[in-house]
Specification:
Number of helices: 20
InterPro entries: MmgE/PrpD_sf, MmgE/PrpD_sf_1, MmgE/PrpD_sf_2, MmgE_PrpD, MmgE_PrpD_C, MmgE_PrpD_N
Protein name: MmgE/PrpD family protein
Order of helices and strands: EHHHEHEEHHHHHHEHEHHHHHEHEEHHH
Strand order of the largest sheet: 7-6-8-9
Helix content: 40-55%
CATH superfamily of the largest domain: 2-methylcitrate dehydratase PrpD
Low-confidence stretches: none
Largest sheet: 4 strands, mixed
Pfam families: MmgE_PrpD_C, MmgE_PrpD_N
Distance between the termini: 46 Å
Organism: Brevibacterium ammoniilyticum
Number of strands: 9
Number of domains: 2
Family: Belongs to the PrpD family.
CATH class of the largest domain: Mainly Alpha
Oligomer: single chain
CATH topology of the largest domain: 2-methylcitrate dehydratase PrpD
Length: 498
């Protein structure tokens, strides 16, 4: 890996494009270095993972509305949309939109956390949609997905967005554009322009994840993927982009991030170096914000050790800055303590999540968020006894680059009415690569079968899994079938402009 220093340059400096971050990203995309076998295996795992969570969400409101919007844009050859008949094809940017919302709706697919936060599986819908439309076979699709992961992870390692209240999808637009460029073997110049365009139109504030969180949380990455598809299309036609988008004196670093004097270090693979960043990412066993994963595992363990939860006086979760300030009491969001809050808000309340997981000794992607579950008096009482506090050591471990130190959990102190206490801690989720039960192919397949049960027929589930697990050998026709159809798919009956 090569560390690239990135800073603002005055227009009078006339920064050469070869010295710009967007160009260096485009060079990684256009590097033909083969994808390594273990990366291919993980790409397949994440294709399965994305489809699993999309199947579970396919009848929910946001994916349904996004799908109905996309259905107004049929196209030939086009791309498939999760849930619809495979013969139905739609314009690829709208397929990326609909599938992106379905994948993101339950907050249940993969994650990578460093200087910034990300769900790099969000790269798959736009790359796959373009692959189906353009007649791309399995190996090139795998390269495109691996590239999207590589670029998003590398940006996340070196450039914080949330520090300036910018949503993390600002890294997704460029990464998806790079992935599409790699898959299509586009010239570096074309991908360079697409990356800049995609960043320019996908920079938005983090209010989508603050206060009363709405369904836009699921739409935001889908929008970034859709914009990436359109950016590549424009660049392929010869259209340019704001330049230099990162380093310009009126660019992203100068006015959106840390300002003209800031320095960022972005690691990128050297020429001829394999793209392996997907191996640094991790998926979710539970449908909740990633910082909740380990704490759910700890709560289900502690739930079996406490005979009477009503005897609990107070619970304090000592954790990282991010967990405390984004999903903990440090956020100062009263909605996180409200039994009538939206699913999206409860998903970002570790107080609620820990209470339910402690009571139920587990977590369910639907039942744990139901209004009935959130409104139980005993749950509300326990929930309101929970608080978080930042512990500098957990914050340090959260940001550590040493995989043996890195941690996304915390220490839980439970005080009982009789004055006794119970303390336990967990560093990483059970499903994490360094956890108690790391996810392997069998776990991804089991997750797909569990989440698609009652939604897909057994034959349809088997058909999809057979294609996905053989992705490396699929021809264009096989890639074109890499979706699933749902019998009796629900429609909302709503009407917008389209």
């Amino acid at each position: 890996m090569i560390d690239h220093e990135v800073r603002t340059h005055k227009s009078s400096e006339n920064l050469a494009r070869e010295d710009q971050l967007a160009w260096k990203i485009a060079e990684v995309a256009s590097d033909p270095t083969p994808v390594e076998p273990e990366v291919t295996e993980m790409v397949i795992n994440r294709v399965i993972d994305n489809a699993a969570v999309a199947a579970a969400s396919v009848n929910r409101s946001a994916p349904t509305h996004a799908r109905e919007q996309a259905q107004a844009h049929p196209y030939t050859p086009g791309a498939t949309i999760f849930g619809l008949p495979l013969a139905d094809r739609f314009s690829p940017e709208w397929a990326a939109w609909a599938n992106g919302v379905a994948v993101r709706e339950l907050d249940f697919h993969d994650t990578f956390l460093a200087a910034e936060y990300s769900h790099p599986g969000d790269n798959i819908p736009p790359v796959l949609a373009v692959a189906q439309h353009m007649g791309i076979a399995g190996p090139d699709l795998i390269n495109g997905i691996a590239t999207g992961y590589e670029i998003q992870v590398d940006l996340v390692k070196g450039m914080s967005l949330h520090e300036h209240k910018i949503d993390h999808v600002a890294h997704l637009g460029p990464s998806a554009a790079a992935g599409i460029g790699a898959m299509l073997h586009l010239p570096t110049e074309v991908t360079f322009q697409a990356i800049q365009q995609a960043l320019h139109v996908t920079t938005a504030t983090r209010q989508s994840r603050k206060g009363e969180i709405s369904s836009w949380k699921a739409h935001a990455p889908a929008f970034a993927g859709k914009m990436a598809v359109e950016a590549v299309d424009r660049a392929m036609r010869g259209e340019g982009a704001p330049n230099p988008i990162y380093e310009g004196e009126d660019g992203v670093i100068a006015w959106i991030l840390s300002g003209p004097d800031a320095r960022y270090t972005i690691p990128l693979p050297a020429k001829g170096e394999a793209k392996r960043a997907i191996l640094d990412t991790y998926t979710k066993e539970h449908s909740a914000e990633y910082q909740a994963q380990a704490l759910i595992d700890l709560a289900r363990k502690l739930g079996g050790e406490i005979e009477d939860l009503s005897t609990i006086k107070r619970i304090v979760i000592h954790t990282s800055h991010h967990t405390h300030n984004v999903i903990g009491t440090g956020a100062n969001d009263p909605q996180k303590m409200d039994p009538k809050a939206s699913r999206e808000t409860l998903d970002h309340s570790i107080m609620y999540i820990f209470a339910v997981a402690l009571e139920d000794r587990g977590w369910h992607h639907e039942d744990s968020y139901s209004p009935e579950r959130a409104g139980r008096p005993e749950t509300v009482a326990l929930w309101h006894k929970i608080e978080t506090t930042e512990d500098p050591e957990w914050t340090r471990r959260y940001h550590s680059t040493d995989p043996n130190e890195k941690a996304f959990g915390g220490r839980v102190e439970i005080e009982f009415e009789d004055g006794s206490t119970l303390t336990d801690e967990i560093a990483v989720a059970d499903a994490h690569p360094l956890g108690a039960r790391p996810f392997v192919r069998a776990n991804y397949v089991e997750k797909f079968r569990t989440l698609s049960e009652g939604i897909l027929t057994e034959a349809e589930a088997n058909r999809f899994l057979d294609l996905a697990e053989n992705l490396e050998s699929l021809d264009a026709a096989g890639v074109g079938q890499l979706s699933f159809a749902v019998e009796g798919l629900k429609h909302s009956g709503s009407k917008g402009i389209f």
